[in-house]
């Protein structure tokens, strides 16, 4: 055999070995381990999003495709599978008010939910993305089956299969045998690996206001194993609800949002687990709330923890109100007290939240020394509305966790729930003062009108 023939033979063998490594590393490393495929080449762009109503126009896919991500991550409410009933103050079925006697949301049948998934999957923009990008994901309440639902929801077993079908999960995947859709993936070659951990915050979650469990014992055991597993340069933890921000502490009693902050023991356990496993390069991505923002917490693991919230692809708070009220929504967002939100002059609005359709974008520049990350929320045409850029070394432990003394408040360290009550409840105070002023003004006008009418009658009698 000549030198050229031997060279060609070695090339064929080498290509075969690479092919085996690329396709055979899907790891059945344990319960919840997903496709786990090590991708080549290096992953530099990841997009993510949530809250996509299958019946609404979805032009945002064009911007996501233009971003050219190698991976797209669904963070829940991938479809709206439950049915929202109209507001009814009176009648036999009242869905609003203190005399409410009927649920506002009701679950759909499995057949109806399946048809909604098929409609979402056939969207032209999303179909184009699926042909060029690896799509992975988890769920939130509306695709889980019912608004704000947790472990008590009876349709979760059937709906788990429907979600995994939507995500094209292999029929022999461990995700189809476990309780919950949590999973993990490893992307990229050694030294430039990105681990993506997707949590299930629905299947095992205890009721709101219980301060019980979010993940359940089996998922906690799995998560500890994942964080103690092989190291990666970057670890992205996907949660359908916000991890860092806890705006409900400052918006109640007017309204509340779901978040890990509603389960403080569980959130502390999550932070402690990251610190105890000495996992570096960790940040969160989340959805659910129908606006985009970036939060940061410096007092948990010895390095800043970021949470990039992208919500939603179609559903957004400013779309839920008439356009003329958009400025009021932005004013309320700016006025809402927050200790965790990243505030920057580069934000589209002063509040550094964005209430129009949006998606999240992660860019990693592996060519720089040190490696740099750019985390952004982008609008419907792909322009950034808020973002942060930093070197990967900033997500390495500095040995000690900063602390805050009692009565002190430090940005990105003091939780919203610990704010002084005058600050924490200023939205409610402003609202109730405004309502009171309006009622007093109406009473005053009514009294003035009554006096004027009496004077008019008296004058008529004199005449």
Q: How many strands?
A: 14
Give the overall pLDDT as a whole number. Answer: 89
What best-fitting shape do the alpha-carbon axes yield?
Answer: globular
Q: What's the story with the biggest beta sheet?
A: 6 strands, mixed
Protein name: PhoD-like phosphatase metallophosphatase domain-containing protein
Keywords: Membrane, Signal, Transmembrane, Transmembrane helix
InterPro entries: PhoD-like_MPP
Pfam family, one: PhoD
Could you give the topology of this structure?
Blueprint: H1 3-23, E1 45-49, H2 60-67, E2 71-75, E3 82-84, E4 105-107, H3 110-121, H4 124-132, E5 134-138, H5 141-144, H6 156-166, E6 183-187, E7 194-198, H7 217-227, E8 234-238, H8 248-251, H9 264-276, E9 282-286, E10 293-297, E11 305-309, H10 326-335, E12 359-365, E13 372-378, E14 384-391, H11 421-424, H12 426-462
Parallel strand pairs: 1-2, 2-5, 7-8, 8-9, 9-11
Antiparallel strand pairs: 1-12, 3-4, 6-7, 10-11, 12-13, 13-14
Helix pairs in contact: 2-4, 3-6
Pfam families: PhoD
Signal peptide: 1-23
Protein name: PhoD-like phosphatase metallophosphatase domain-containing protein
Task: Tell me what you see in this structure.
- About 30% of the residues lie in helices and about 15% in strands.
- The chain has 12 helices and 14 strands.
- The protein has helices at about 5-25, 60-65, 110-120, 125-130, 140-145, 155-165, 215-225, 250, 265-275, 325-335, 420-425, 425-460; strands at about 45-50, 70-75, 80-85, 105, 135-140, 185, 195-200, 235-240, 280-285, 295, 305-310, 360-365, 370-380, 385-390.
- The strands form 3 sheets. A 6-stranded mixed beta sheet has the order 5-2-1-12-13-14, with helices on one face.
- The longest helix has about 35 residues, at about 425-460.
- The radius of gyration is 26 Å and the shape is globular.
- The model is unreliable at about 1-40 (pLDDT under 50).
């Amino acid at each position: 055999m000549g030198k050229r023939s031997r060279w060609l033979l070695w090339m064929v063998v080498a290509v075969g070995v690479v092919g085996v490594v690329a396709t055979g590393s899907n790891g059945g490393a344990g319960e919840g381990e997903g496709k786990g495929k090590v991708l080549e080449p290096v992953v530099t762009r990841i997009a993510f999003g949530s809250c996509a109503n299958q019946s609404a126009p979805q032009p945002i896919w064009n911007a996501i495709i233009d971003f050219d991500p190698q991976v797209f991550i669904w963070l829940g409410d991938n479809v709206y599978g439950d049915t929202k009933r109209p507001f009814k103050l009176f009648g036999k079925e009242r869905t609003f008010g203190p005399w409410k006697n009927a649920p506002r949301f009701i679950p759909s049948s499995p057949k109806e939910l399946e048809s909604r998934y098929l409609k979402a999957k056939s969207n032209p923009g999303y179909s184009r993305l699926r042909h060029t990008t690896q799509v992975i994901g988890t769920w939130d309440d509306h695709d889980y089956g019912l608004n704000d639902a947790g472990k008590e929801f009876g349709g979760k077993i059937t709906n788990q299969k429907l979600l995994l079908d939507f995500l094209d999960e292999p029929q022999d995947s461990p995700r189809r045998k476990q309780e919950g859709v949590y999973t993990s993936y490893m992307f990229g070659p050694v030294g430039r690996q990105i681990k993506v951990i997707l949590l299930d915050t629905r299947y095992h979650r205890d009721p709101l206001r219980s301060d019980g469990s979010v993940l359940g014992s089996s998922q906690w055991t799995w998560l500890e194993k994942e964080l103690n597993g092989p190291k990666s340069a970057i670890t992205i933890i996907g949660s359908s609800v916000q991890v860092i921000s806890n705006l409900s502490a400052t918006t109640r009693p007017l309204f509340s949002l779901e978040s890990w902050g509603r389960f403080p023991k569980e959130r502390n356990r999550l932070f402690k687990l990251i610190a105890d496993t000495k996992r570096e390069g960790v940040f969160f991505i989340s959805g659910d709330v129908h606006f985009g923002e970036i939060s940061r917490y410096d007092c948990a693991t010895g390095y800043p923890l970021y949470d990039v919230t992208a919500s939603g692809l179609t559903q957004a708070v400013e779309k839920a109100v008439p356009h003329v009220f958009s400025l009021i929504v932005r004013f309320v967002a700016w006025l809402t007290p927050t200790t965790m939100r990243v505030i920057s002059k580069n934000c589209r609005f002063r509040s550094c939240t964005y209430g129009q359709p949006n998606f999240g974008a992660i860019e990693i520049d592996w060519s720089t020394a040190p490696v740099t990350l750019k985390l952004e929320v982008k609008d419907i045409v792909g322009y950034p509305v808020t973002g942060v850029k930093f070197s990967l070394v900033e997500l390495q432990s500095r040995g000690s966790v900063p602390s805050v003394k009692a009565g002190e408040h430090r940005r990105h360290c003091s939780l919203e729930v610990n704010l002084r009550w005058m600050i924490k409840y200023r939205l409610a105070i402003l609202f109730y003062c405004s309502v009171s002023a309006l009622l007093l003004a109406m009473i005053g006008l009514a009294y003035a009108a009554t006096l004027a009418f009496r004077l008019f009658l008296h004058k008529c009698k004199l005449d």
